[in-house]
Design brief:
- Two copies of one chain form a homodimer.
- By secondary structure, the first copy, chain A, is α/β, with parallel strands linked by helices.
- Helix content of chain A is 35%, strand content 20%.
- Chain A contains nine helices and 13 strands.
- Chain A has a six-stranded mixed sheet with strand order 6-13-11-9-7-8, with helices on both faces. In chain A, strands 3-2-1-4-5 form a five-stranded parallel sheet, sandwiched between helices. In chain A, strands 10-12 form a two-stranded parallel ribbon.
- In chain A, strand 7 and strand 8 (177-181) form a beta hairpin.
- In chain A, helix 8 packs parallel to helix 9.
- The radius of gyration of chain A is 19 Å and the shape is globular.
Chain lengths: 282, 282
């Protein structure tokens, strides 16, 4: 039986992947990144390893029969001087640091290369836990209106344009106007600043308007950080009176889809899996 | 002698244009948008007219011998219900409102169309006040390093990608990472949120890093709002410890170039007119 090794960054995603893979009959072993991964990874067979100890990670995955390795969860761009590197990591470091100057996705891809150089097969979430991928269409009770669909389309175009430059995965559009696009501040920061815009440009309490869209960067190969939403995303979107959330169908991940859809229904937001028209699809 | 009519929105730009045009021997008449334009437009022949009174504007320009009209200065996207429209404006309103759903530049272009429909020639700043256009090269004492030039290039690419979708005119890049891209929050908001990013991603007091770039949207024809910087931009960039500011040479405007360059020198920032390599130039 093949074993799946998960290098767990922050947030719920690594846990959701481990659960999903285990449910499908896979043996799972988790390397929790010290100080970064959620303590609840301890529900699975695991060890804690500091970021930078690549040799240790490779060793424990081998000892635990993992032939496939996946990296998941939030790892914000590290401060190099805070990391203690082992010998294995040090030999790869120049390559990683060079990649780091080219954007987050390049940085993550360099980790994938290292994993593969160690004889593991790097797998993406779509393969390890396909149940987390957003399906197409309305995922809750509400559907986007035609105008909201147009906003989703524009947001998807913005994310594609940004993502081609490895910038961000999220955009917020309201009535044809792009209110915010994500860069280094992350999706939470992008959502939060909607509240600072003039009221007539955005939704207000009792009068929700605008849509958050999350989708892959065109340069992503599915082995690195896919866009993710969860219940917290719904809560934040509702707090700035957005009308709904759309994600790239087959490209973005939803952690706890049933709960997220219920949260969207309760908050009065639509939740939609968007498939770009043919010329934009990959 | 031809007369130049200026519809003045907020900020120093309309005043700088009026000065520059007057210095070059043009007769200037200013329509100050009520509640929006800076009171110092009163230094020029002027009247105050509320936004939405297009008929009045056309009449006063005609009465004052203006054959050319230019729109300049900040006019944030209006709340329609706050505007009182005259008959002339009302006949054009459906077109303007349709344009408004397509982004700021489309909105401004619809005003230009109206001006031209009234028999005036719509002129751009580049024609009316060429002295305000940023020249190429170092504009202060400091020069960007090779790494900073690479950051400027990436920021210019981001602005081009965003601008093609009528999103924003500014991006901030530090060591190959795009820290922030501008949408509805404007350049000031884009600069301000750099301070909220983790310190190792950005400059800090005494250790400036990162560059702000402003450039035209590829869809702009020069008759609508060109990107602008001034002394205030330098102050804000310095307050978040950026290392420098670059603007599109021949495409962005600098209000008070000498003063801005001196402010940059004092703050230890480079100020650079960037010309994109051939495939990106227009």
């Amino acid at each position: 039986m093949s074993g799946l090794g998960i290098i767990a960054g922050g947030g719920e995603l690594p846990i959701a992947i481990a659960e999903c893979a285990q449910d499908s009959g896979k043996r799972v072993f988790v390397v929790g990144l010290k100080g970064i991964a959620d303590p609840t990874i301890s529900r699975f067979a695991h060890v804690w390893v500091p970021l930078g100890q690549a040799g240790t990670m490779a060793r424990v995955f081998r000892q635990n029969g993992c032939n496939e390795v996946l990296l998941a969860g939030k790892v914000s761009r590290p401060k190099w001087s805070d990391i203690s590197f082992d010998a294995k990591a040090l030999t790869k470091l120049p390559k990683v640091m060079a990649a780091a100057t080219k954007g987050d996705d390049a940085l993550l891809r360099s980790f994938v290369d290292i994993i593969e150089g160690e004889g593991f097969r790097a797998v993406g979430v779509a393969e390890a836990a396909p149940g987390l991928l957003a399906p197409a269409g309305a995922l809750g009770k509400l559907n986007p209106s035609a105008a909201q669909m147009a906003d989703i389309e524009l947001a998807a175009k913005a994310v594609n344009a940004l993502g081609a430059l490895d910038i961000g995965q999220a955009a917020i559009v309201c009535d044809g106007l792009v209110l915010a696009v994500e860069a280094a501040e992350g999706t939470d920061g992008t959502i939060a600043r909607i509240a600072e815009l003039p009221e007539h440009l955005r939704g207000t309490a009792g009068k929700p308007r605008g849509v958050l869209y999350k989708g892959r960067k065109p340069i992503q190969d599915g082995k690195t950080d896919l866009p993710v939403i969860g219940s917290e995303t719904v809560r934040k979107a509702a707090s700035v009176s957005l009308a709904g959330i759309a994600v790239e169908a087959g490209g973005a991940l939803i952690v706890g889809r049933q709960k997220v859809a219920e949260a969207a229904d309760r908050a009065g937001l639509f939740l939609y899996g968007y498939s770009a028209p043919a010329p934009m699809s990959r």
